[in-house]
Design brief:
5-stranded parallel sheet, 11 helices, 3-stranded antiparallel sheet
């Protein structure tokens, strides 16, 4: 049975806590407080404070493997036949596991106010950032869904324009239905505009990027109405163009961003690179 390094840490932690059963909320909060030393997950400010969708997914995968059980919001080990080289501080685990849920929450809410901004259980004053108007772009290649969402929140984005032709992904969290369901819970509106994407068969037919971008710019010339809508959206709210590629020069989002810039004279800011001098790339 193969499990990844993150999942091994979860198993180690569950084996280390003195309680046979531990609540999901408490377990998530312990991982959050220990994350500086174990560095396994990124967290987002969610309904009950810091939360990781990737961690939730790993727990469900471990449950599916028959290693642990989750029932009535409790987690406990089903199998204990796992011996991994220790990578966690057991004393630290036991220190936090002795705390009650309320003590953990009070400590986190006091010391990590950023993660309380979407809480449904305790209101803490926190001023959410709102980005200035610009042409923002992002590619999710190399990002976990938690790091992706956290980046958008910290930058102050309010709208995502997904410009993939087919908004589906084997990478967890980046398919249309997932994004449409969860992003609004963070105050981020999600919209998919497949007409501004590039079909896979066209990408395969034109591996040379220069030729591909020439064809894409011609496509934009015949889609002026949609360009106008994108431009109006980006001028009204902090909006980011989303696609896959990490490097904006390898992605059609940069071509679209330059077209919007031509109409608005707004700066282009890519969250993957955040180049200070975009004219050097043209």
């Amino acid at each position: 049975m193969r499990i990844n390094n993150r999942q091994k840490v979860l198993v180690e932690l569950l084996n280390s806590v003195k309680e046979r059963k531990i609540s999901r909320l408490k377990f998530f909060k312990i991982i959050f407080l220990m994350n500086e030393s174990i560095d396994c997950y990124k967290f987002v400010p969610y309904k009950f404070g810091p939360y990781s969708f990737e961690m939730d997914r790993d727990l469900r995968l471990l449950e599916k493997m028959g290693i642990l059980v989750m029932v009535d919001n409790k987690i406990f080990m089903k199998s204990t036949n796992f011996n991994f080289p220790s990578s966690i501080n057991v004393k630290e685990v036991n220190f936090y596991s002795r705390w009650s849920e309320s003590k953990l929450l009070n400590y986190i809410y006091k010391n990590y106010p950023y993660y309380t901004q979407n809480s449904r259980i305790k209101k803490v004053k926190y001023k959410k950032k709102v980005a200035s108007i610009a042409i923002y772009t992002i590619g999710y290649e190399g990002l976990s869904i938690d790091l992706f969402i956290d980046t958008l929140i910290r930058k102050g984005i309010r709208v995502i324009l997904d410009i993939r032709n087919k908004p589906f992904s084997y990478k967890y969290g980046f398919s249309y239905f997932w994004l449409r369901k969860y992003l609004p819970e963070f105050g981020i509106e999600y919209k998919n505009i497949p007409s501004l994407g590039i079909e896979n068969k066209i990408r395969r037919s034109f591996p040379d990027r220069r030729r591909l971008w020439e064809l894409y710019r011609k496509k934009l010339e015949h889609n002026r109405e949609m360009i106008k809508k994108v431009t109006e959206e980006m001028q009204s709210k902090p909006t980011v163009l989303m696609c896959f590629e990490q490097n904006p020069l390898d992605c059609h989002r940069f071509q679209l961003a330059m077209e919007v810039q031509r109409l608005t004279n707004l700066p282009i800011i890519d969250f993957n690179k955040e180049y200070s001098q975009w004219h050097q790339l043209k």
